[in-house]
Design the sequence.
């Protein structure tokens, strides 16, 4: 069984729910399974260590997860049009993996959630792709052969999966958003299987 790492940060649950849909899509590809992992929060003014295991949800990611998985899907809520600091903090500590080429040639994709429709989904997705390119990943998006991409009234973009949580911050993806998230997971898994 080959695994795809679905690595995300989520505070309110929107990105976490999208991660589960992406994991479902990965599991639909024969011989592929998802490995769900998250990153600890960061604090600017303390050095209190995060507990080794999160209270709920996915376990914290380890460097070995990157080495062991055959693909990677990165998820983060939008923070002023960019990825959130906890995910960026994790990525900024991947110097050894960059030097040793741990991710070179592996397929990778991105997903996000915003409160507002035009609040920066695409810029956030692109911001996650920049470090993935430095690490030598093969970037995977969602092609327009997914018909829902042309009709969605919420999230779902060619740059990656997404959800619009609205001003009430509803974490539940719409049917279209969930379908496109599964399609992205499936596609990363299919590309990983072909590249293996
Ligand atoms: C500091 C901060 C900055 C944010 N910046 C944006 C933004 O630029 N555009 C937007 O639409 N939503 C923004 N949001 C809202 C979150 O992206 C949105 O609520 C998202 O669905 C949360 O995902 P989560 O439930 O996985 O944490 C921001 C939220 C916070 C706390």
Sequence:
């Amino acid at each position: 069984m080959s695994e795809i790492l679905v690595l995300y940060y989520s505070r309110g649950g929107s990105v976490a729910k999208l991660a589960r849909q992406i994991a479902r899509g990965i599991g639909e590809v024969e011989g592929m399974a998802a490995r769900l992992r998250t990153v600890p929060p960061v604090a600017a003014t303390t050095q209190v260590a995060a507990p080794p295991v999160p209270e709920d949800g996915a376990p914290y990611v380890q460097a070995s997860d990157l080495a062991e998985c055959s693909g990677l899907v990165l998820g983060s809520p939008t923070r002023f049009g960019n990825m959130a600091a906890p995910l960026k903090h994790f990525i900024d500590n991947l110097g050894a993996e960059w030097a040793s080429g741990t991710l070179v040639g592996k397929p990778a994709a991105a997903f996000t959630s915003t409160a507002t429709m035009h609040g920066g989904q695409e810029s956030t997705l692109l911001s996650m792709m920049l470090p993935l390119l430095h690490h030598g990943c093969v970037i995977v998006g969602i092609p327009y052969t997914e018909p829902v991409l042309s009709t969605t009234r919420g999230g779902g973009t060619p740059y990656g999966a997404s959800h619009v949580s609205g001003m009430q911050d509803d974490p539940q993806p719409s049917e279209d958003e969930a379908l496109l998230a599964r399609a992205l997971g499936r596609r990363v898994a299919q590309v990983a299987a072909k590249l293996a």
